[in-house]
Every structure is written in C-alpha cells, then in structure tokens.
C-alpha cells in the first residue's frame, strides 16, 4: 500500500524501503533541551530559566537541530515544570529571537505537578508543535537532592506517580491543538497506543502527516530494542513519519538504528546526560553534533528547519511571539 505524501512511505514494505535507501528523506533532529524531572543538580548545563533555555536552543540549532522541545520551569520552583502559558510565551519569544527558523515544540507532558488543566492552558502559548502522550505512563525513582547555592534547593525524595489520560481528555487535547494549528508530536510508549492514534485519526482530530515519537527505555514503555522498533514501524498508519527517543544508555544505539530505517531522532539533556560511559555531554549542542556525524557517516542528509517544516506539513513561515 503506497502512501499519499511524497515524503512518507511504508517503511516496513520491502520494495518501498529498498527504493528509498539511496534517496532518503532528510533527517529531522529534535533536541529536547531540558525535560521536566531533573535540573542543574543533575547536570550544570541543563537549562532552567527562559534565558538559559533560549541560549541552549540556539546552540542546538546551530549544531543542526531543526526542532527544539521545551519544558518551561516554574518561577520559584525551577526543578519543576510550569503550567503557565505566559512563561512559555516568554521562552518561545526568546527562542525565536535567537533561532529565526527553528520549529518550536512545547511539552504537554510536563513534570511532577503538571495537571490536565495545565496541559490545556499551556497551548495558549501557541507553539508550532507540542508533545502529545498517547496513553498512561507510570514512574518510580529517587529524585536527587538539589543543594544550595542552586536556586530553589530541596532534599531528595521518591517520585512514585502515574499519568493516566482518558480517551475523552486526549480527544479534548487534540481538538484544542487543532483549533490553534499546533501539530501534535505523538509520544508512543507501547504499541497498544496505536489504538488511541487510530481513534483520533478516525475522528479527524489529528491530520497527516502524523509524527510518531517512540519513547524507549522509559519505565513502562516498550523495551528499547531494535526488534521492537521494527515491530512499531510495521504498524505505522499510512502517511506517517516516525522518530525514536532512546533514554540514557540506549540513546545512541536506538537513534542510530532509526537513522538506518529511514526514521528521525530526538537527542538532548532531557533524555540522556552522557556522551559515553563515564563522560557527560558538555551540553545539548554536543549531543546534536554527535548525531549529525553519525547521520553523515550513514549517508542521511540532515534536515534544515525549512525541510523539516515541509516534511511535517507545517507552515513555511516560522511562528512569531
């Protein structure tokens, strides 16, 4: 079955894959600069304030990222996410000033204290894309202490949480994104969530090309193996693109495998702090630089922001704030 878009194809189809090996789509690199569950207590280069986030986004942009994924932090509580659209608008404006063409992608996943009301309210910042978790996620881990002189210090604590969206809430979230022309980045933790995506597609709440982001190596997500990536790719809806997140030690192996398959990648300090065992990344730019080198060795051209906009069906004109 062929795809309707010149930029998508059935990656699991033998003949289509062979045809695209020598003329693959440019590689879309997303840089997730900070995340919502760790801060400078874990890595000194992890940006927290709007100015730090914008500066780190610029470094990733200049290194080759075409999308920046952002978690705004709560003023006075910088180790946690904010639910404030005003904070996101401030960050987005600062990023746009430094990065004229980059695609701005805000989280709706959030952090420790994010509510469904926050997820909806944050959309008023009008990012070009926003993450969209397709189902539940459950996590339990020890959060390290945040010592002074870092702002907003805290003792270590145990995080034991579950985010459990319903079909109804996800329909509401998708509808609000569609009203604002925000493209959902469909975060998939396990293959059963294709049922949710199919329901949203059937209702017309999300539009092609669909952009699936496989989250692998995360608690309660599918195991981070090449075989599982292949299995997920085999079930992609028509008119889809995919990208892979490999958390922590799985990042470089899984993102490299995604490049080989014709997929896209996400790197950055949200997902992984290390260049290799025993050696932390110097910052987000170094993560992007490494994946650019890998792509070049594997004959995948790296997408410019303009090319990524075309591939994703976004406006050719970058957003303003």
Provide an overview of this structure.
This protein has one domain: Aldolase class I (TIM Barrel), CATH 3.20.20.70. Helix 2 runs parallel beside helix 3 and helix 2 (50-63) runs parallel beside helix 9. Helix 7 (226-234) links the parallel strand 10 (210-216) and strand 11 (240-246). The protein has an 8-stranded parallel β-barrel, surrounded by 7 helices. The chain has a two-stranded antiparallel ribbon with strand order 3-4. Strands 7-8 form a two-stranded antiparallel sheet. With 321 residues, it is α/β, with parallel strands linked by helices. It has helices spanning 14-20, 50-63, 85-98, 116-121, 167-179, 194-202, 226-234, 251-261, 284-297, 305-312; strands spanning 29-32, 67-70, 73-74, 77-81, 103-106, 129-133, 137-143, 157-163, 183-188, 210-216, 240-246, 264-267, 274-276, 279-280. It is built from 10 helices and 14 strands. The chain is 33% helix and 21% strand.
């Amino acid at each position: 079955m062929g795809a309707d878009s010149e930029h998508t194809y059935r990656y699991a189809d033998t003949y289509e894959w062979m045809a695209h090996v020598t003329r693959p789509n440019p590689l879309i690199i997303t840089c997730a600069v900070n995340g919502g569950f760790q801060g400078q207590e874990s890595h000194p280069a992890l940006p927290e304030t709007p100015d730090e986030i914008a500066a780190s986004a610029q470094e990733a942009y200049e290194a080759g990222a075409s999308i920046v994924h952002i978690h705004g932090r709560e003023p006075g509580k910088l180790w946690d996410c904010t639910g404030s659209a005003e904070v996101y608008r401030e960050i987005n404006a600062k990023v746009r000033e430094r990065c004229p063409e980059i695609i701005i992608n805000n989280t709706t996943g959030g952090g420790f204290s994010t509510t469904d009301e926050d997820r909806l309210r944050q959309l008023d910042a009008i990012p070009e894309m926003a993450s969209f978790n397709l189902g539940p996620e459950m996590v339990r881990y020890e959060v390290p202490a945040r010592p002074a002189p870092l702002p907003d210090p805290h003792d270590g604590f145990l995080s034991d949480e579950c985010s459990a969206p319903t079909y109804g809430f996800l329909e509401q979230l998708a509808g609000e994104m569609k009203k604002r022309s925000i493209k959902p980045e469909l975060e998939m933790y396990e293959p059963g969530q294709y049922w949710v995506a199919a329901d949203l597609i059937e209702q017309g709440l999300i539009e092609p090309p669909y952009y699936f982001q496989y989250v692998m190596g995360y608690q309660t997500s599918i195991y981070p193996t090449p075989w599982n990536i292949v299995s997920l790719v085999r079930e992609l809806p028509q008119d889809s693109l995919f990208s892979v997140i490999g958390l922590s030690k799985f990042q470089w192996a899984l993102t490299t495998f995604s490049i080989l398959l014709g997929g896209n990648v996400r790197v950055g300090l949200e997902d992984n702090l290390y260049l290799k065992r025993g050696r932390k990344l110097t910052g987000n730019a170094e993560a992007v630089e490494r994946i650019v080198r890998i792509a070049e060795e594997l004959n995948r051209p790296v997408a410019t922001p303009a090319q990524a906009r075309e591939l994703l069906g976004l406006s050719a004109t970058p957003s303003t704030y």
